[in-house]
Amino acid sequence: MARLTPMLRQYLEVKERYPDAIVFFRMGDFYEMFFEDAEIAARVLEIALTSRDKGAEEKVPMCGVPVVSASTYLARLVQAGYKVAICEQVEDPRTAKGLVRREVVRVVTPGLYVEDEGLESKSHNYIASLVIERDQAGLAVVDLSTGHFRVTEVPLEGALGELFRLEPRELLLPEGLRESSLTGKILQSLPGVFLSFDDLENLSRGRAEVLIKEHYQVATLAAFGLDGLGPGVRAAGGLLRYLSETQKGHLPHLKPPLFYRLSQFMLIDETTKRNLELLKSLSGERRGSLISVLDRTRTPMGGRLLKHWILYPLLDRAAIEERLSAVELLLADGYLRERLSGGLAEVYDLERLNARVAMKTATPRDLLALKSSLLRIPHLKEALTGKGGVLGRLAEEMAPLPELVDLIARAIREEAPASLKDGGVIKEGFNPELDEYLRLRQDAAGFLAEIERRERARTGIPNLKLGFNKVFGYFIEVTKSQLSKVPEDYIRKQTLVSAERFITPELKTFEEKVLSAEEKSKALEQKIFEEIRQKAAAFGPKIQQTAQAVAVLDVLVSLAEVAEERDYCRPEILDEPIIEIKEGRHPVVEAFLPSGAFVPNDLRLDHEDHLLLIITGPNMAGKSTVLRQTALIVLLAQMGSFVPAQKARIGLVDRIFTRVGASDALSRGQSTFMVEMTECAHILHQASSRSLVILDEIGRGTATYDGLSIAWAVAEYLLEKDGRGVKTLFATHYHELTEMARLSEKVKNFNIAVKEWNDQVIFLHRLQPGPANRSYGIQVAALAGVPQPVIRRAKEILRRLEAGEFEILTGMARKGSRKRLRGRQLDLFSPDNLLKQRLQEIDIDQLTPIEALNILAELKRLAKED
Ligand SMILES: Nc1ncnc2c1ncn2[C@@H]1O[C@H](COP(=O)(O)OP(=O)(O)OP(=O)(O)O)[C@@H](O)[C@H]1O
């Protein structure tokens, strides 16, 4: 240490306090990084790595980024998963005695990033914290870029699901969980989440309460609905402490924590969110997702709220009806909708602008954006006056804040530059002192012209010019051919190819005056701007309230537009557990087909005679589509949207469960069948009589008869669960399941119609009562391009199976007729020696019917491979 320069010593002291962060060390107009930090940053940011003298002969690796463009570099480091500590000069270098004092003013991680460059405008950037107490988990989430703060308590097994629903960018966990299996599971569910660890386990309930009360200056937690909570309060307090430490206590825009219970909303778990392709398609893109069809929002806060509505459908009938009525009104009044959408399109991200104002990072252009957004508010309010219901309430909640608009309009120049650094931000006439400096600078132009004119006359050099550059300041330029006329008092400063530049004492004195005026005016502009920003910050809560109202309005207008364009209807919301859909459509599939090409379908579910619908039909007929569209229509209805149907009556559903086809869990080291059964177990445990269960092809991942037996037992269990059963749609290729309809009147068979033509199938996509009579698997295989010899052979096997050989075989197996069975099987599948040998080993007399069936299934499989 002793050999280091004082500056590097200061740097190392800072670094010692933030060992796991890259330190951005402010030096003038740059943030510099040293040692290993410099090497990492140079690599990640692709900037030059240089070095600096350590004071002795050794060199220290170093790199730097300009302060003006720092947020871009910051975004890249943070996105690459690094933590950055921003260390500023906290005193004026011009007046500091000795080394300038520097302090870390903010720590930035993926979850603490607030600059626009690295954030998706229509997504929240959440940081969450998790605290576990026995079988309960407390969860708190904050979006620092908007100030949203939410808290919940969930049973431990639901914590992961809720985390997946929120998808935080960063998760704060108790130190003790660092190496735990739970952390491993979290990383599997949320790949790319940035994990931070904190001493949350030793944060007592009492201490956490004090932290919250102190921050919000309240006497009790009752106002936030947090009283009576345990781990929820600790998670919220812990998160607040972490935010306060990293932001150095600077969190004025954080909204009061909003407590919610999972039971207030329809529960959408990880599987359902993925399977129903709510925010992303199965291939991971926005295209093909529900939100891609629904999102017509014009403001970033509207976009974020729409996501929230999709993930948190309501269970309160009155609240749903309110939203639906607003959508209906907007749908009916095209003129109103147009006025509103025009206004909304001109509102910027009020939430993030407000956050930047509060965090003192707002630029002059941010304030202009705030002003022009607020200027739209009176128009929106006016358009909504007298509308009643939600719309009327929104109008009341919007605050146009004319004092703030007026202040910004008087103070900030419309063409203000992006940064404050070079001045030119504050309008003339706003501050007399600033005007004085400005006049001096303007006068300077006249004064310089006067000097030029006078010097030309004095020296007789007609093309003598006055100029300015950053290195030499003001100068007089004389071309080489005129040099002989230059007077004695000119002092030569610079030689160019064809001219020489001079200064005079008079010019130097003048220059000092002008430059000091410039410097003073910049400092004054900075001060004035900060004062205005400070004043704007005082309007924070009103701006947030307005932003929230704008967001709701934006989503409602968006839903009305989609309803109009895609011809959706208003669903009837019921308390009784019925789902009745007439001419329902899949909102996403239909959007990809030509208009009118989608075949609508009717469907009814209830607890009397339509509790379990078994849906059979060939591959590609549209079984999955019917299943998913039913779930999506229910979800849309409960989020307050119109639905793609001619008529829909929806009894409130508390949860939608889905078990659909292959999942991407293979990459997480689980087998397809294991995933299928885990999801299935979850459904069987959790589903209630108010849930909707969608099962697509269950039991397919194992041996045929194991699978069939499981599928059958699962269906039976759901039929009886809790005495009332669970509304279930079950698509299957196990034709045997259709037998269930004979055993219970609550079960109904449906199939999806196809037409046969020239040994080809034509898909009609129409749902009709009764079981499917054929599977057409081979025709679909042919469509898919399976080679002709295989298709011919498959048809041959199928023909013989259908001719009854299958039943004969099983019958024989039951009777234990070893010899005949062997003969038949050999004949049927033209087996090789290996197969013959296997059959010799089987003691058919001891076989149970199921075992016999399994053997046959295996033979079939071998024959197919053959
Ligand atoms: N009602 C419909 N109207 C028009 N096209 C439809 C309809 N239903 C499905 N389709 C089309 O058929 C395709 C296959 O549908 P889907 O995946 O639902 O079939 P499936 O019966 O579940 O098939 P598999 O058994 O192979 O999974 C869809 O991608 C869609 O293009």
TrEMBL record:
Q: Which SUPFAM superfamilies match?
A: DNA repair protein MutS, domain I, DNA repair protein MutS, domain II, DNA repair protein MutS, domain III, P-loop containing nucleoside triphosphate hydrolases
What keyword terms does UniProt attach to this protein? ATP-binding, DNA damage, DNA repair, DNA-binding, Nucleotide-binding
Q: Which Pfam families match?
A: MutS_I, MutS_II, MutS_III, MutS_IV, MutS_V
GO MF annotations for this entry? ATP binding; ATP-dependent DNA damage sensor activity; damaged DNA binding; mismatched DNA binding
**Binding residues for ATP:** G617, P618, N619, M620, A621, G622, K623, S624
Return the InterPro entries for the record: DNA_mismatch_repair_MutS, DNA_mismatch_repair_MutS-lik_N, DNA_mismatch_repair_MutS/MSH, DNA_mismatch_repair_MutS_C, DNA_mismatch_repair_MutS_clamp, DNA_mismatch_repair_MutS_core, DNA_mismatch_repair_MutS_N, DNA_mismatch_repair_MutS_sf
* Highest taxon above the source species: Bacteria
Q: Name one GO biological process term.
A: mismatch repair
List cellular component terms (GO): cytosol
Q: Which NCBIfam families match?
A: mutS1, PRK05399.1
- Family, per the entry? Belongs to the DNA mismatch repair MutS family.
Listed PANTHER family: DNA MISMATCH REPAIR PROTEIN MSH1, MITOCHONDRIAL (PTHR11361:SF34), DNA MISMATCH REPAIR PROTEIN MUTS FAMILY MEMBER (PTHR11361)
User: According to its UniProt entry, what is the function of this protein?
Assistant: This protein is involved in the repair of mismatches in DNA. It is possible that it carries out the mismatch recognition step. This protein has a weak ATPase activity.
What is the official name of this protein in its record?
A: DNA mismatch repair protein MutS
